[in-house]
Design brief:
Length: about 950
């Protein structure tokens, strides 16, 4: 795996040599730094690895270097043989990509395992892999390297519902939500089909079942692989071979036979059965119609207890590794805080190995058969830990309750993981005050009244009663209609997840599952849950992100189990990047009783609040302000078609170019450096200093020559298009365009004596011939040149996103810890206050100017973006505000202090955007303005309005 990681890294630096054009386009799209939702490196690396194996290793292609994992090694791995980099002569276990069946008659499955920590975005990775194979197959219909059918297999109903975002035929999909597929490849994506299934569907069908009903007289015999595949896959069967994605794939393995003397727990037996059904089902599908390869995704791709393998040993087909330590260190999950010392002065604090401390404290008579402590003992010995943890919870909860209107007020959640049902029941009762009691009632009122009461029939009835909890009852006690403390019936939940419950029990199971699934979600049944008591570690796929405290009340026999429990609290609440650091802010989860010893953790000063205690501001559109809705086109490019080859440009409106001798030196002083020296080279010493400059270059170059070269490049860009997304223009006759473009270049540059839009800043005019300046002028002029409508040309028009042509402020909905300013005349309830205060000042002025501004919206999470290029690289520009003036004009407003050259490229692109949108004309008249002093913004807008009259 580490060797493969080195190869993928080198392949990445080698610009993905020998990958298909579609693959390179997707990889470039995913790696763009200006994406609204940037992908994690771990997501990119996992996908790159699978692609590298399939397109380079399996395809026998040259990656452009000598790989650590050779093509011969790959063939050995794919065949299940020992590769050359394993030096042990007869190893018991070695890496392999071939998962060979235990049964005869079935071929090995090709499997690629990707270890991805909780919260690192496995579902996004699956969407990227689906996009990769579908888009390639769409462009190359005959290339079976890329399946156009994908089967996604998962362990339970919660995950099944959540994975519906992977379907390409739904509106709520990840391909658009996370911008996984560029618009031009969307039609290719739609050509593939995704099927999502639970492993339960893989169970062999009863031979006596027909159309879902069982008949004694029906005996169809054992289901054949083809019949099985057609039943499970439906019309995917005819699209084979397929790609399989296993979610939570640590359940999908081949158990080794166990000795008769080996004692397995009920959970271990159940796990072996699930693993057998899951993998055997894939074997049958491969035998029937073909499985190209299987990608396994799991935070813990290790063999479980009872599997027949060493518990915690990794699957041998792992190709990508991003574990919990990596996730914590990179900041994409919460940081666990574990006890490191206490007031007892013991070397190890009690709350770290809490269960071990409880067992050690038991007195004679306090053990149950089997040696486990009685529930009352566990409560007695763990109450101090629970109270301490709950106190931390209360501190955070009260802080959140003080949140202002518009800020997040969803309470944090504390999880208690108990060893057994009796312990869970006692803790639930003591925390919530709720318990079920039996009340004995007379059976019937019409029984013989003369019969003695002692002989009357009695019946027991269960009734729920509410008392006062023992831990912060004002916060955790349940009452009729409000139950902040939830106890999970693991058996009932398992029935809900497998869809096995019947009748009224089915309704109760589904209600429980729905509450658990919506913990931390506003307006949902689980919104007010504050404490969860469970025997199990909670269902997989549970994505509540407001878990802040975990208490372990059971034995943890392996670090794998510790990781699975801790993982339930690691999902981040906020993914907003701190503008000062470019990183996520820290978030923490406090953990007692889970002795995890292989992860970094951090202590917390009791005298200061943790960063994540700060309540989140909920920035969203306000339905009551629907009349302030701002609608805008989503422009991906421009339609520029010439019929007569006549172009024009408003040179006065083009952004100027400023030469920068402070960053591009025109001369340098040099001096011999002899001997050792600390720090930077110094001008002091015995040698003379010499000056080196570009006088020879100036002497051999003329400004007119530079202008001709710029004009040639502009014409080339207009006629041929620029790689990376600039629109390709269908132009004929470059000789007709060149003199027109040269006149525009000449007017733009001017001369050192009479400069126009180029500020030479005292530099020699031939400095303009440097690539850094030539590129900027070319990009600026390409953005400014338009068809000459007065000469009979069709106007410049925007090319809109075909799937979502119009955006709206009604879709703004995000949370942030940054301070916010409330709004009055905006569809969005708050504006995030940036650190430089310029935007806040602009908001104040916009709110104040009722005679000029009708309404406005801050362009944050609004996704109004303007495409532009800078040094040949495609970017997106997001103006600060969108303002509707009382005149009806919609103004793109940028608040900017010092301008850099990249800012000028953005502003030129904005003017091109406005010109095209105005020609389109479907959303009124638009304008663009850059304000360099927010205190003057209204005066400047008034001046613009007067100038338009």
């Amino acid at each position: 795996m580490n060797l493969l990681r080195e190869d993928v890294k080198r392949w990445r630096k080698n610009e993905y040599r020998n990958a298909t054009p579609v693959t390179r386009q997707l990889l470039a799209h995913w790696a763009r730094s200006d994406r609204i939702r940037r992908l994690f490196f771990c997501q990119m690396e996992a996908v790159e690895t699978v692609i590298y194996i399939n397109e380079i290793l399996d395809g026998g292609k040259n990656p452009g270097f000598t790989p650590k994992v050779s093509h011969a090694d790959y063939k050995a791995l794919a065949a299940g043989d020992k590769p050359s980099f394993v030096y042990e002569k007869a190893p018991k276990v070695f890496p392999t990509l071939a998962d060979k069946p235990n049964e005869d008659g079935f071929a090995a499955l090709t499997r690629y395992g990707c270890k991805m920590a909780t919260g690192s975005g496995k579902t996004v990775v699956m969407s990227m892999l689906i996009a990769w194979t579908f888009c390639n197959r769409g462009r190359m219909p005959a290339d079976e390297r890329f399946p156009n059918a994908v089967l996604v297999v998962c362990p339970n109903l919660t995950i099944f519902e959540r994975l519906q975002v992977l379907r390409t035929d739904t509106d709520e999909n990840y391909y658009q939500h996370f911008d996984v597929v560029p618009a031009q490849l969307m039609p290719e994506l739609q050509k593939g089909k995704v099927l999502i299934s639970n492993w339960h569907k893989f169970a062999p069908e009863n031979p006596h079942v027909e159309s879902g009903k069982s008949y004694v007289v029906v005996d169809k015999g054992e289901e054949s692989p083809d019949a099985f595949a057609r039943r499970v896959l439906g019309d995917l069967h005819d699209r084979a071979p397929i790609m399989v994605l296993n979610d939570e794939a640590h359940h999908a393995y081949r158990p080794k036979p166990v000795e008769a003397t080996d004692k397995l727990s009920a959970d271990e037996k159940s796990e072996r059965e699930e693993a057998t059904v899951w993998v055997s089902g894939l074997d049958r599908i491969k035998a029937a119609c073909g499985v190209k390869f299987v990608v396994d995704l799991s935070a813990t791709p290790f063999y479980l207890g009872g599997s027949g393998y060493i518990e915690g040993s990794p699957f041998p087909w792992l190709v990508s590794d991003f574990g919990l330590v990596d996730a914590i260190e990179s900041g994409i999950v919460k940081i666990p805080r574990l006890p490191v010392s206490d007031t007892t002065g013991r070397p190890e604090p009690k709350f770290f190995r809490l269960w071990q401390s409880i067992v050690a404290s038991m007195q004679p008579g306090e053990k149950l058969p089997g040696g486990k402590p009685k529930p009352e003992v566990v409560w007695r010995e763990a109450q101090d830990a629970l109270t301490t943890l709950a106190s931390q919870w209360k501190e955070r909860a009260i802080y959140l309750q003080e949140a202002k209107p518009g800020q997040e007020q969803v309470p944090p959640v504390m999880i208690i993981v108990a060893d057994n049902t009796n312990i869970a029941e006692l803790f639930f009762k003591n925390i919530s005050g709720e318990e079920s009691v039996e009340i004995v009632e007379d059976a019937d009122e019409d029984e013989d009244e003369d019969e003695p009461s002692s002989k009357k029939k009695k019946k027991a009835k269960t009734k729920t009663v509410f008392g006062t909890g023992l831990i912060f009852p004002e916060l955790f006690s349940n009452r009729d209609g409000f139950r902040p403390t939830l106890r999970i019936d693991s058996k009932l939940l398992a029935e809900a997840e497998s869809n096995d419950a019947k009748g009224s029990r089915r309704e109760a199971a589904e209600a429980l599952r729905h509450i658990i699934d919506t913990v931390g979600k506003l307006g949902k049944p689980g919104e007010q849950v504050r404490c969860v008591v469970s025997v199990q570690m909670l269902t997989e796929g549970w994505d509540a992100n407001n878990v802040t405290h975990i208490l372990g009340l059971r034995a943890f026999g392996s670090q794998l189990l510790c990781e699975q429990v801790v993982g339930r609290g690691l999902r981040r609440m906020d993914y907003t990047v701190d503008p000062e650091t470019g990183l996520f802010t820290e978030e923490y989860v406090d953990i007692y009783g889970v002795p995890f010893s292989v992860i970094p953790f951090r202590g917390r000063s009791t005298s200061s609040k943790a960063p994540e205690d700060k309540p989140k501001n909920h920035v969203r559109s306000d339905e009551a302000r629907k009349h302030y809705e701002m609608r805008f086109p989503i422009v991906e490019g421009y339609a520029f078609a010439l019929r007569k080859n006549v172009v024009t440009a408003n040179v006065d409106a083009i952004e100027r170019l400023i030469l920068a001798p402070d960053t591009t030196p025109t001369a340098v002083f040099v001096k011999p450096q002899v001997g050792y020296q600390i720090g930077n080279p110094s001008v002091a010493g015995g040698f003379t200093t010499a000056t080196q400059d570009r006088e020879a270059y100036y002497a051999s170059t003329h400004l007119q020559t530079i202008k001709f070269e710029i004009a040639r490049l502009v014409v080339g860009a207009l006629t041929e298009g620029i790689e990376g997304g600039t629109p390709k223009l269908r132009l004929q006759g470059r000789h007709q365009l060149f003199p027109q473009v040269f006149r525009i270049v000449d007017e733009y540059v001017g001369s050192p004596e009479k400069p126009r839009k180029v500020d030479f800043r005292g530099c020699h005019s031939c400095e303009l011939g440097l690539e850094t300046y030539v590129r900027r002028i070319v990009e600026r002029l390409v953005s400014a040149i338009e068809p000459d409508t007065e000469g009979g040309e069709p106007p410049l028009m925007p090319r809109l996103n075909r799937y979502k042509p119009i955006g709206t402020s009604g879709e703004v909905n995000f949370k942030t810890t940054r301070p916010c300013v409330p709004t009055i005349r905006s569809h969005v309830n708050q504006v995030v206050a940036d650190t430089n205060s310029w935007e806040q000042a602009a908001v104040f002025r916009l709110e104040q100017a009722k005679d000029v501004v009708s309404f406005y919206v801050r362009n944050e999470h609004l996704e109004l973006s303007i495409p532009y290029e800078y040094f040949g690289i495609a970017y997106s520009y997001f103006p600060d505000f969108v303002v509707r003036l009382i005149s009806g004009t919609t103004l793109l407003l940028e608040i900017k202090g010092e301008e850099r050259e990249k800012d000028r490229a953005k502003h030129q692109a904005a003017r091109r955007w406005v010109s095209a949108v105005n020609h389109w004309g479907q959303l009124g008249h638009w304008a663009f303005h850059v304000c360099k002093d927010p205190q003057q913004v209204i005066d400047e807008i008034r001046f613009l309005m007067l100038a338009k009259r």
